[in-house]
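Subject: sequence -> structure tokens, single chain

Hey, anyone have a minute? Need the predicted structure for the following. Not urgent.
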Amino acid sequence: MKNLKIAQKLILSFSIVTITFVMVSVYQIDQRHHLSRIQHGGIIRSNALANIKEVKAMGTILYQDVANAVINRDLIENMKTWRDDKANTLSDLDNLEKGLDTSTEKELLKECREHLKNLFSLFEDEMLPLIKADSSMAAIRVVDAKFDTVLSSLEVDVEKIATLIEADNKASDKLFDSTANEAFIFTMIINVIAVIIAIIFTYVMINLIAKPLNKGVVFVNEISKGNLMVKLDIEQKDEVGILASSLKNMVVKLNSIIGNIVLGANNIAEASSQMSHTSQQLSQGANEQASSVEEVSSTMEEITSIIEQNSQNALQTEKISVASYQGMNDVATRANNAVEANRTIADKIKIINDIAFQTNILALNAAVEAARAGEYGRGFAVVAAEVRKLAERSKVAADEIVSLSQSSLSLSEGAGKKMMNLMPELEKTTQMVQEISAASAEQTNGSAQINGAIQQLNQITQQNASASEELAASAEELANQAEQLKDFVSFFKIEKESKAMHINKPHATPTPKKEITVKKTTKQFVPTAKKTSGINLNLKEHDDKNYENF
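Reply:
Had a minute. Here:
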């Protein structure tokens, strides 16, 4: 019974009660039909008694018809009345036969029919011919005596039938009364049994449905109070048992869930404490890093200023070097021109020396010719001697000039060679100074980029410091929320094996936020020299997976 579904239990209970009441109803209907049949038989017998009275009366009426025929001798009218009374008598016998149900009664009725047949025969076959023949009264009395005998026999048989019918009526009345009493008693017994069965099944249904449900209500009320250690003792396979099994599974799940929540809250509290401590360390490190970055930024500003000064000096040096190179180039050109001029002078002086030599020869020839001329040539000889002296002096001076010119030419050529040898080095020096100037300009740009990167790094460091402090505050708030969660969950009483270890650790308090100010460089240096490849700093990478984590 416990393993049946509630619907099956209810159907079974109502079916049994319904079948019981149906059986009672069927029995009552059958008894009513039986009583109705008895009552109907009584009615038929009552009608049969009425028909018997009519049959008795018809016997008298038939006798009167015979007497009228004998006395009045009106055969036509008498025969008509006779036929009508004869038909009525036979009809009464037929109606009487319908109310008879025993063989004795039917045998008596059969004898009554024979008696009537004899009466009809006596009147029609014997009495009528005598009346028609206008016979004597003595002959008619003989037939009349026979008629009386048969009529008496008919009345005796009819009376017997009436006696039997009255006896049957009394028996039917007794049977009706006894059957009605039996039906009433049996109906009452069946009704009492049905009520008892209904009460039994009601009690069974209460034990199988209501009591387990009440246990379930108590179980759920205990759960609503937070008691998850409550037990539910219901072992059924119906809907109530399924509900009880589901409730027990729910409690098991709740024990597991609440235990996991408690364990998770403890883990969160511990993790938040560790995170708060770590975030404090991170905040302190970020503050120290911000201070270091500030110092690095100041140092980079000084380095940038020095690099900028070096760049300006390199530019000035480049200008001086270029001017020196150009001056040396001009000096070399002028030296070459001087060498060429000295060579030209030397060549010209050689011509003068040749002229002096030729003049000396001509003076010598003139002196010879003057000597040959004698007195007339004495003055010419004097002139020739003076010319010769001038020529000799010119030659000496020309030789000295040639010597000086050659010495100057040698010096100029040596200076020119040295200047020409110095020009590549000076050009190389100029190029190196230009490269130094360009490198200084590139260093200025690089230092500016580094300074900007350090400024950005400083901002990021400050943001990290602020974020770490906020992280510490969030960790503290998370720890508080975890404690509140444990307080909420403590409302439930769970199994010991489901309880988690309660961990209490001091929570770190965030350090006060420190504002860090960084000096920004206001100088902007724009180089004019040609840029080299320099240094390319890319600060726009969003992924730090290429960097090492500490």
